[in-house]
Amino acid sequence: MNGEKTTKGMEMFKVKLTGHDYRYEVFQILNLFFDKSQLDFNSSDSWDIESVLDLNRNAVECNIYKDGDVFIKKQIKLHQLDKKDIKNAIKMAILNAAEEYTGKKMPWGILVGIRPTKIVHELERNNYEREEIRDYLTSNYHVSYDKALLTIEVAEREKRYLTKKENSVSLYIGIPFCPTRCVYCSFTSNPLGKNQRVVEEYLDALIREITATLDCLNEKNINVDTLYIGGGTPTSLTSEQLRRLFETLSSRLDIKGLREFTVEAGRPDSIDEEKLLAIKEAGCERISINPQTMNDETLRRIGRNHTSEDIVEKYELARMIGFKVINMDLIIGLPGEGVEEIRRTMEKLRVLSPDNVTIHTMAIKRASVLNEREYSDKSLSAERMYEIATEEVRNMGLYPYYMYRQKNMVSPLENVGYCKESTECIYNIQMIAENISIIAMGADGVSKLVFEDENRIERVANVKDVGEYIKRIDEMIENKKRAIDIISK
Ligand code: SF4
């Protein structure tokens, strides 16, 4: 180590690549252990970490240096020389070296930027048995035994929902407004206060996009499988605005014929009886009411204008109105929360007994919010909190059915959706499995066109900014028509 520090006082590492240029892959693994600002790939005079590909010896190496001498050396023999195997071996050597250097174990090993269940489905297609899949994940990716079992369990559940009718798509509609903005928000969300007038203009534009999209799908005889209205917070709209949106949908779409229709009601401070009735009468049986935490102090700290009592009240109202499935989202690692807080949240959730619980792990820019010390303390307790939450939901009779991983989590964990028997959210599974094209409408909607035969996905994005979306709605509609044209061929 050269003793150099970042401006935040963290150790700096100069990184050298020898015999290859897989900088992104090297960065992905080092970034699990160190902040981006600690890694320098541009030094030409000296280095602390060296990743080597030596094709003469069919081997890769990762060396960590201290005072000019090799301090840690990890070597892996290459058995195959295709690109994927070489990249994985490079990642594995770095993972082994960094784990020894930091003393931290990464439960997901080198699985970064890959959807874990996709690997399971692929292995199953190649006739691997359950135990073989588990061993493949633990040895080829260094995934821990527990995470390998979790991945297999989720993959088995999601498999039931991966079948679909020929020539079908799912729809996503985005409402990018919220009562206020939460401090951790990474979505396109505009606080209502400043934007009341814009909401109406947005809805006009959105209705134009929905109308054109549904007309185009009907013209081409494309079936709609599932419909998801998300955000932001869709219930930021008034009940009249919601009814207008649903009328547009039902004028061109057989809502009763959908396999699933979900509305993310989201924050309790946006929900009232009129809005819930509008949603129910539109034929939707599945909503989310997302507490994130049941601790009032945390709710205040994260910028929410409601209490845990409001969450209970709106949940009971939704039950009384008769929604069949209610999901609740939780976040592990919210500012100021520890083991005590998550226990309290889970106790309150147990009483409510929601049908789905989605457990997210907070994702933050590590260096900008917390210093290194705070981060490592935080990640330890995040792991414990995560264990408590998952144990509790399993005790509530829920099982995991979909899962994804994100960058910059406070701990190297995962986001998992749990559900009671047969209440899986099919749209969530489809989003992760990428087995069906999703046509997304609204600002920041990203349509994903799936070409299964070619193992390829094409993305068609609407603009993010609400003002731009309204201004450029004709262009958005044209792009959408072109996208539908491509998948109908
Ligand atoms: S409710 Fe969700 S989308 Fe809205 S501000 Fe909070 S985190 Fe962002």
Automatic annotation (TrEMBL):
Can you cite a GO biological process for this protein? porphyrin-containing compound biosynthetic process
What InterPro entries has UniProt attached to this entry? Aldolase_TIM, Coproporphyrinogen-III_oxidase, Elp3/MiaA/NifB-like_rSAM, HemZ, rSAM, rSAM_sf
**GO cellular component terms, A-Z:** cytoplasm
- Could you say which residues form the signal peptide? none
Q: Which SUPFAM superfamilies match?
A: Radical SAM enzymes (SSF102114)
Alphabetically list the UniProt keywords: Iron, Iron-sulfur, Metal-binding, S-adenosyl-L-methionine
Q: Which residues form the Radical SAM core domain?
A: 163-399
Molecular functions (GO terms): 4 iron, 4 sulfur cluster binding; catalytic activity; metal ion binding
Query: Which SMART domains does its entry note?
Result: Elp3 (SM00729)
Q: Which Pfam families match?
A: Radical_SAM (PF04055)
Q: What is this protein called?
A: Anaerobic coproporphyrinogen III oxidase
Q: Which species is listed as the source? A: Fonticella tunisiensis
